[in-house]
Amino acid sequence: MSYSIPFPLDDGFLRRECPACERQFKWHHGPTDQHPDDAADPDVYWCPYCGETALPDQWWTAEQAEYAAASLAGPALREMVDELRQSVGQSSFLKISVSGDEPEPPSALHEPTDMTAVQPPCHPWEPIKIAEDWSGPIRCLICGRQFAVE
User: Fold this and answer.
1) Contact, 44 vs 53, CB < 8 A?
2) According to the 3-state scheme, what is the secondary structure of 51-85?
């Protein structure tokens, strides 16, 4: 079974955190109008700050990971109980009873409208938002090419 967990966006941007330097930035969630039809999704993404790469599923913030785990706790518990009941089946000598409260769903995350939006010259269809106080060069998420913010 698969579950979908909604995360709040800032004008289409999703907050991310580099697994290497732990700095946060935002990448655009979904295609922009400039996205070429033949552009493939990358196998890895580059951190705009430190230049390290990681797989697409390794950029969650701690808050997002905690929210996802808390959001899945109730559905996962229900699924385990259902599977246990099905595996035992009807039996005259064994009876299963489950009691207890299901975990409450977490409060929704809030995404502030912050950071400065920039477009890399090499892949303008992949805009990012970086920390407002960042003054160094940044890298393109797709190819890692450095560029200056003007």
Assistant:
1) yes
2) CCEECHHHCCCHHHHHHHHHHHHHHHHHHHHHHHH
